[in-house]
Amino acid sequence: MNTAREHWGSRLGFIMAAAGSAVGLGNIWKFPYMTGENGGGAFLVIYLACIVVFGFSLVMAELLIGRAAQRNPVAAFRHVAGRGWPAVGAMGIVTAFIILSFYVVVAGWTIAYMLFTLNGSLANPDAAALGQVFSDLVANAWQPVVYAAIFTVLTALVVIGGVGSGIERASKILMPLLFLILVALVIRAVTLPGAGEGLEFFLIPDFSKVTGATFTAAIGQAFFSLSLGMGAMLTYGSYLPKERNLPADAFAVVVLDTVIAVLAGVMVLPAMFAAGIAPGEGGAGTTFKVLPAVFDAMPGGVIFGFGFFLLLAVAALTSSVSLLETVVCYFVDERAVSRRRATILSATCVFAISIPASLSSGLWSEVTFFGKNFFDLMDFLSSSILLPLGGMLTALCVGWVMGPRAIAALTNDGKLSMPWAGVWLFGLRFVAPLGIGWILLQGLFG
Ligand code: PFF
């Protein structure tokens, strides 16, 4: 079945595509406002700890399962671990739909903001006026839905194009560009009047603000940002030829993702303080509300603003592509559906569930489930429950079921020297399951 499986064209292409999956709205839209809501510096420290303790070893674990099995998540778990385990892959596919339902909505806002920069709606340094632009957009009944639809179609087009030609080529050029524009914006943001306080809030931890909820938020954010716990990394790993040196690639992806999240924090939080918005108050609109004032304070602000939202949309696209690819790869491999058909069907489902997610910021904001609107519920379910759970099960699978086989697969049967591989396996056996399990339990019942 898998004899003709497509592979990444080059090492750089793979790293850029995997980093493209990781770097997205999670870094630039979500990380800054989560940090704001969860106490600033202390959240940053706990987030970084989650990346170091769980993130890196699990990125390796997922890539390894994918590479060893050369199959979609469901079949890959069956291949490496046998009966029962495919359920973990299936859970990942459901999670992909849940994440996509709100991801395309936020990506749609990004497209709207590209247009707003051009038509002058954002040419206003006043925080209240900029806040109003955002509220008007999300409260509108149909506009955000149309933008989400446009973004879903774009995602589907790239996925239909296939892994190598579509995903790999786009990522290689655009990721470095995003990085450059981010650096320029960071420099402007931290030199705004009043920015220093924001920088302090972000970088100097105040642990008295830490609660159990801080841990839940940090681990959810770490998994979301690294595209972990639902089979996206596994799927990308399945397009890797067997001889690749996984740890080096995983390390590069984790570092890139983390650097970009931290840069986004250094950009948004000072801008937020400069705009006089309290850190807990920005909500999901934070990045959209505060950055236009940064552009306004720059020479050539319209170009920077447009470039920023364009590249953010592209970063979102390389992430949403990996989410949809995970689903499509399953239907293509397991159900013998054509790539085109599988993509069109899945994208239609995504669009359908993105409608309530979009309306929950406006027309349906009063419709709540367990005290959350549909958008927040989807976000909570995926980031705070399903991704950490998926990650924990992945750790158990590689740590206990594959065990020494995992080390053999990692080192290409001993051909690569990795003296620390035992530490990695120990982490997957004990540290990750117990640590993630504890955070999950106290998040749900604590
Ligand atoms: N990592 C992406 C981001 O930070 O925007 C979001 C994401 C992509 C989550 C793929 C999960 C996933 F499987």
From TrEMBL:
Its main location: membrane. It is a multi-pass membrane protein. It holds the Pfam family SNF. Keywords: Membrane, Symport, Transmembrane, Transmembrane helix, Transport. It is found in: Membrane. The chain crosses the membrane at residues 12-29, 41-66, 87-116, 145-167, 174-195, 215-239, 251-278, 298-331, 343-365, 385-408, 420-441. SUPFAM superfamilies: SNF-like. Belongs to the sodium:neurotransmitter symporter (SNF) (TC 2.A.22) family. This is Transporter. It comes from Salinisphaera aquimarina.
